[in-house]
Predict the 3D structure of the following.
Amino acid sequence: MENDTTSNIPVQVMLFSVLRERTGERVLSVTIPNSETVESFVDRLAMAYQPIADLKSVVRVAVNKRYATANDMVSPGDEIALITPVSGG
């Protein structure tokens, strides 16, 4: 039996820095349930995209232009960004 509250909604995830380079993508189109935690969202992305899995331990997630914690929620319509550390001189 299907539950209407688990329908998947498309969202776009912006990639920056090395994630953009390694995936060759600026934006990923993925689906999410009505809402889920940042941690479960990143876990699902890591299973689908090896570059995200490789850098999962250092990836920061921003939701609506604010850094998010693992327990924050991601919902349809949110602006989601995956950010890796950068270095330079």
The helical segments are 17-23, 38-48, 50-55. Strands lie at 9-15, 27-32, 36-37, 60-63, 66-67, 73-74, 80-83. The CA atoms of residues 50 and 83 lie 15 Å apart.
